[in-house]
């Protein structure tokens, strides 16, 4: 059996983290973008130059990481972090600023953000971003434990997946969704009530189900699965996805389903072709 940390690492190799850069200096935006785009597991989803634009863009794109300048037109980095803390709890925030000394540790802690002085350089910023993105093993273990429970602990799973900031589903041997989070529902453009308790065939559509069914069988045989595949989905159409499945088991040790994280890489694949 593959250990949890190995499975999660496998999943993360297929999930490029989305970074939003906010700074009123064009030079800083360009150099931070360049650094992030050198990382094979990261992509820059947007770069903004003022606080109001940053809030609107972050709410629309829901990035995994938000790199904020402190002093920007419209709203400061601290104001932006405060506004987004409740709306985007899964987004990690870093203040990358020349004025780090002016931000108290208590203020940073309340906002849930870390401060990296610009004089420390890009390497320090990248180390901080990677630290923030690293999933805590105990959180992953707790999510799997909640999914394995004979009585699915939905509330606990929802809390944990917000901490992980990752779209997840849990499917059973009957090929029905036992649970899914809102990231997954947003992607499929379907309300959660039309996913949870429904068959995978009905949710994904016959074409996508037929394409992916072999991977479901692998998970139900007890194997951990990672793949990249193109399929025709109901409503959202043709998509290229990467996914990782972790088999779950009942009390008698028999595989009874799988926990899955899925990432749509259609746009990335098209960009590389061009």
Walk me through this protein's architecture.
This protein has 274 residues and is α/β, with parallel strands linked by helices. It is built from twelve helices and ten strands. A five-stranded parallel sheet has the order 2-1-3-4-5, sandwiched between helices. Strands 7-6-10-9-8 form a five-stranded antiparallel sheet, with helices on both faces. Helix 3 (51-61) packs parallel to helix 4 and helix 7 (137-148) packs antiparallel against helix 8 (154-164). The protein is elongated. The two termini are 40 Å apart. The model is unreliable at 1-14 (pLDDT under 50).
Strand count: 10
In which range does the helix fraction lie? 40-55%
Q: Give the overall silhouette.
A: elongated
Strand order of the largest sheet: 2-1-3-4-5
Radius of gyration: 20 Å
Q: Which regions are unreliable across 5 or more consecutive residues at pLDDT < 50?
A: 1-14
How would you state the average pLDDT, rounded? Answer: 80
Structural class: alpha/beta
Number of helices: 12
How much β-strand is present in the residues? 25-35%
Order of helices and strands: HEHEHEHEHEHHHEEHHHEEEH
Question: In angstroms, what separates the terminal alpha carbons?
Answer: 40 Å
Biggest β-sheet strands, sense, barrel:
5 strands, parallel
């Amino acid at each position: 059996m593959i250990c949890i940390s190995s499975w999660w690492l496998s999943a993360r190799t297929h999930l490029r983290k989305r970074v939003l850069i906010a700074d009123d200096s064009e030079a800083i935006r360009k150099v931070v973008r360049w650094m992030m785009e050198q990382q094979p597991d990261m992509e820059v989803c947007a770069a903004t130059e003022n606080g109001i634009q940053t809030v609107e863009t972050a709410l629309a794109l829901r990035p995994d990481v938000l790199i904020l300048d402190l002093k920007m037109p419209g709203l400061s980095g601290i104001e932006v972090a405060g506004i987004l803390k409740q709306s985007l709890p899964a987004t990690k925030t870093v203040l990358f600023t020349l004025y780090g000394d002016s931000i108290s540790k208590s203020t940073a802690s309340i906002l849930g953000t870390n401060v990296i002085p610009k004089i420390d350089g890009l390497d320090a910023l990248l180390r901080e971003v990677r630290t923030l993105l690293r999933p805590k093993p105990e959180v992953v273990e707790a999510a799997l434990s909640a999914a394995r429970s004979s009585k699915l602990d939905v509330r606990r799973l929802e809390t944990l997946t917000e901490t992980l900031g990752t779209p997840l589903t849990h499917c059973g041997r009957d090929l029905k969704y036992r649970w899914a989070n809102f990231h997954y529902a947003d992607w499929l453009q379907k309300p959660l009530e039309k996913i949870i308790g429904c068959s995978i065939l009905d949710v994904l559509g016959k074409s996508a189900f037929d394409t992916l069914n072999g991977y479901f069988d692998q998970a139900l045989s007890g194997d951990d699965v990672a793949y990249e595949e193109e399929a025709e989905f109901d409503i959202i159409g043709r998509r290229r996805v990467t996914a990782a499945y972790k088999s779950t088991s009942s009390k008698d040790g028999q595989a009874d389903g799988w926990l899955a994280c899925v990432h749509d890489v259609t746009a990335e694949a098209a960009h590389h072709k061009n």
